[in-house]
Amino acid sequence: MIIKNEWLIVGFITSCHGINGQLKVKSLSDFEERFLKPGMRWLQKESEHPSKIELISGFKQPGKEIFIVKFKGINTRNHAEQLKKCKLLVKSDKLPKLKKEEFHLLELIDLEVKTLENDELKIIGKVINLENEKNNLLIIELFKNQKKVLIPFVKEIVPLVDIKNNFLIINPPNGLLEL
Length: 179
Prior knowledge:
This protein is mostly beta strands.
């Protein structure tokens, strides 16, 4: 899960690459420079606090959302094995600037959720968090019963996001809100 105003998960270390401490990272980011540009990053093992690590280099595997990265001090396969399943994080206050119509996923948290019923917009809940480990899912708390539901963040189900006016519209398939 992503917690607003703290950390953003941008990738997962999936496995080692070779014998010199390189690692494969599955990207969850649209910004490739997070895996290519040298500098400080943060790694997090399961429920531990994030720790700083320096990215030395990286390159993208052709045709995949996988990057091969090299961190300072990780020089053997044995060292690299210890980092498998770690999350690669960035601080959410260091997010890149976007174009006018674009937004960061973190900006979806706390938006009102509306549906169109009988040609009228009805507020049904709010986005309380995101699930982003495999798919982009909105975690929405419904006002009528405080139930939490997962909504896939795809154009067919979430056709409109209005960050400026603090709401989004969902068009859920029948039964999705009752699960």
